[in-house]
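sry for the spam today, last one i promise. struct tokens for design, 317 residues
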């Protein structure tokens, strides 16, 4: 059991560094290929790999979406087309470490979306940790001067990244209602269906002249970045993440999600970026708030479970 737990920690740690590096690698690629073409090519490769993996694990019939095709297409559009177009277009105008911190706010978005759906108001501690996390993000965006957000430090790049995270959060929550689908099948089918509007949007934007048309030389300049985003970033990390959930549990895995910005900061610093001292403080505050929210939610869930008949004597308080 201990070896399984240790292996689960290794797997989720790999995910953290892969996804933390995605923001840096993606920013590099965007210097040559725009967000539309980059996302289309990246997920074209990823979808082919996922389809081959799904067919191997569950058979070719698993590739068929079945009667839930409309719902899966909508979710795929949210999770893959809109998320990538919004987040990567935003990344063109935002720093990788800032984008990573904004992405890490997904647990708060999940909490408030569920509030809207169920009518159950979050605890006061949730609002407190959210305020703390946002203060930390403001220190990073403003490079130690949070009030500078009101004088231009907060740009539309950060807003687009946030909109992309919101879109992906809706996709994640929507997967709960998709029955009889394994995580691999859900990811593969929605990615395949989401790639279609992603590719169509790229064609329309290209034909309308809203974006440029990258040359073969542009793709050749960033083929390593595209390969990283497509294979480790989408396929390897997804398999490792789902395996870690089985080995150490979803709540433990969620704790590691909060540390993705730390990986992004470390990579940027290793590449020569010199952050302001208060910028690092802001990142620490945000990550601490996210971890605190996860721990508070876990304790609250244990208390509620302990109140259930027949479980109070066996579940920890």
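last one done:
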């Amino acid at each position: 059991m201990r070896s399984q737990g240790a292996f689960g920690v290794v797997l989720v740690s790999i995910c953290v560094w892969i996804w933390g590096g995605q923001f840096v690698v993606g920013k590099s690629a965007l210097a040559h290929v725009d967000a539309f073409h980059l996302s289309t090519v990246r997920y074209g490769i990823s979808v082919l790999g996922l389809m081959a993996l799904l067919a191997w694990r569950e058979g070719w019939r698993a590739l068929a979406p079945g009667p839930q095709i409309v719902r899966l297409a909508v979710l795929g559009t949210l999770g893959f087309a809109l998320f990538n177009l919004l987040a990567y277009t935003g990344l063109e105008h935002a720093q990788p470490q800032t984008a990573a911190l904004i992405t890490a706010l997904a647990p708060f978005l999940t909490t408030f979306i569920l509030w809207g759906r169920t009518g159950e108001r979050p605890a006061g501690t949730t609002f407190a940790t959210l305020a703390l996390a946002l203060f930390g993000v403001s220190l990073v965006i403003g490079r130690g001067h949070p009030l500078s957000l009101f004088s231009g430090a907060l740009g539309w790049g950060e807003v687009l990244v946030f909109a992309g995270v919101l879109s992906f959060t809706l996709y994640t929550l929507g997967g709960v209602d998709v029955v009889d689908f394994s995580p691999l099948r859900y990811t593969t089918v929605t990615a395949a269906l989401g790639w279609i509007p992603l590719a169509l949007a790229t064609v329309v934007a290209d034909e309308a002249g809203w974006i440029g048309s990258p040359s073969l030389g542009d793709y050749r300049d960033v083929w390593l970045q595209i390969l990283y985003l497509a294979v480790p970033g989408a396929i390897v990390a997804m398999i490792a993440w789902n395996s870690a959930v089985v080995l150490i549990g979803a709540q433990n895995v969620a704790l590691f999600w909060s540390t993705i910005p730390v990986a992004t900061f470390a990579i940027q610093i290793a590449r020569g970026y010199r952050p302001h001292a208060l910028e690092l403080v802001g990142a620490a505050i945000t990550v601490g708030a996210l971890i605190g929210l996860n721990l508070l939610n876990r304790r609250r869930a244990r208390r509620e479970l302990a109140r259930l008949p027949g479980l109070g004597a066996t579940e920890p308080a």
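Confidence is low (pLDDT under 50) at residues 311-317. ok im logging off now
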